[in-house]
Amino acid sequence: MSFSSEKADRSWVAQRLPSKDDQAGLLVLPGLLTYGIFMLYPIMYLIFLSFTNAGGAEDLIQGTYDFIALDNYGRLVQDSQFWTSMGVTWLFVFVSVVLKIFFSIALALVFTHDRVRGKRYMRALAIIPLGLPPVFTITVWRQLFSPARFGIVNEVYINIAGFLGQNPEPIGWFFNRWMAFFSYVVTELWLAYAFMLIIIVSALQDVSSELHDAAKVDGAGYLHRFVHVTLPAIKRPVWFASILTGAASFQQFLVPFIFNMGGPRRQNEFILLYGFREAFQSPPRMGLGAAIMVIALIFIGMFMWINVKKGRLAEGLSDQ
Amino acid sequence: MSMSKNILGEIKDDIVHGAKAPIRAGREVVGTVRALRDGRASYRDVGLTAGATLGAIAILLIILFPLYYMINVALAAGTGAASLYEEGFFASPTEYNLAAFEWLWYESGFFFRPNPQDPTVSMWEAFTSSFLANSLQLVIPTVVFSFVLIVPAAYAFSRREFYGRKPTLYGYVLLTQVGGGISIAALIAIYVVFNQLGILNSFLAVAILYAAGAIPFNTWLLKTFMDNIPESYEEAAIMDGASRWRVMWEIVLPLSKPGLAVVLIFVFLAGWNEFILAQILLSADKHPLSVGLYRLIDEFGTPWGQFSAYALVYALPVALIYFFSQRYVESGLSFGGMEG
Known about the structure:
The structure holds two protein chains of two kinds. Chain A is mainly α. Chain A has a domain at about 270-310. Chain A has helices spanning about 5-15, 20-50, 55-60, 70-80, 80-110, 120-125, 135-145, 150-165, 175-205, 210-215, 220-250, 255-260, 270-280, 285-310. In chain A, helix 11 (about 220-250) packs antiparallel against helix 14 (about 285-310). The interface between A and B is large, with 117 and 114 residues.
């Protein structure tokens, strides 16, 4: 079927169907309402809470709290823990996204390479981490980074050092700020590479082989062809995936939560964990926690905004 | 029409095809050796291919090492933490047994709570208070609600024009990847709202919450799937006098099967894997498998054999479903929005 005939079909169907069918809107309404009640209403409520000095849930249910306007936000700006957690969250987003991009492109190149046989099966196995329960995956990684001698990462480290003639102590991964941060990054990399791999592989398969062959005939080496042919072709999907995966990194909650509660000494407390702890610790400070979460939501919204604007996720919406 | 072929049938074909892979690989090796002998292939060429393949396999093994590790620990003799490690990790355990799985069956609460050997409690009673029963009571309504809410909406977005279509879709696209973050950020408010409405500790309420969180991403995903179904099929049906609803039920939905399968997997995963909301919104006797798993983790002595056995039985079915429907997931995630 040629392109033009499909266009003709569309107009034919359009003639039969009413141009506006507001009954169809009713099909969307239940989902929209459910989302509104269960997600948007709590978010509104969260914004309201952030202007109060509510402590625990009892306060809210009995109404024993006061409206304190922007005091929570003012308090946060002066709280060094807020800046620590903002800083460490953004550092994590930056480091993990850069590594995810490099790692996933490298993997995608391997698993689409002409010389690799059985790559479809390898890809099917490689994306299994996407289907595993995060609690499971993250706990396994916590075990691999176990500070004790039998933690596999320590084991590898000690073996390599032993091979080089040294005899170091095992690393206390979770007791040192940057060691713990490193372990989070590696874990996030493992959690997220599969998603990027899928997107980059499908982009690579669309790269025209004629361009590659032409470049080959012109005598371009592998690196040259990668930089000048492959990379421009996969730029858009990679950008798109980086924003999404950046949003995911920013929302990372379970890794610090399960590893060591954002420790040591709250130095790796990512923003969502920080808000969660303020709200549910004892004594609880739900008002303050809500303010932290509202700030986090503003940044999450920013990611999505950039992606829709720049990644043109919503492309095709405008011409319909 | 290959698209309307039964998904189970396609998955079966995939399994058969996959099972025959070693035979095909063997034939290729034999063919290559013959070609080398006859001088039809160069040693350099074959060497490079073999090297690249082996390299790719090595990379894959390194990536998937954590999985191997869990399986190894689950099968290692004893259920204590120390048994595996006395000689260092790379020393294989000297003995394998199923002690951890026996624990899983009788004592973990995974399948039965309390112990099914207790004569005062029937098997059924023990099952209905297990983590598994709790998980099913969460996941089944989640899937049902999601489908009821997502499928008609995706159809309307894909095929009809109506008031507010564009802004709604735009909003859904904005929300696609922030489901988890929003529900954690809004957790404080959700807890209070649930408390006020008196629906704390209800499977149904949590299931609807999960379904609500899944709406933007999955509606949009299914819509992009339906966009790719040519409208000429519907045209033919309309010409034959089919009503608009019959067109939806009998043409568009059957053709969207791969898309529906992906949505099913994603929605199921969302309900099956989530644990932070379940832990806060449900009481201990209603906790699902994910919370049960989390509760095994202890800073000072997680029983690794038991943890691994639990985790494997919990994760494996989902991972297998995922593995066999990987093709659909790939085509689902490599959606549009990237062309041009």
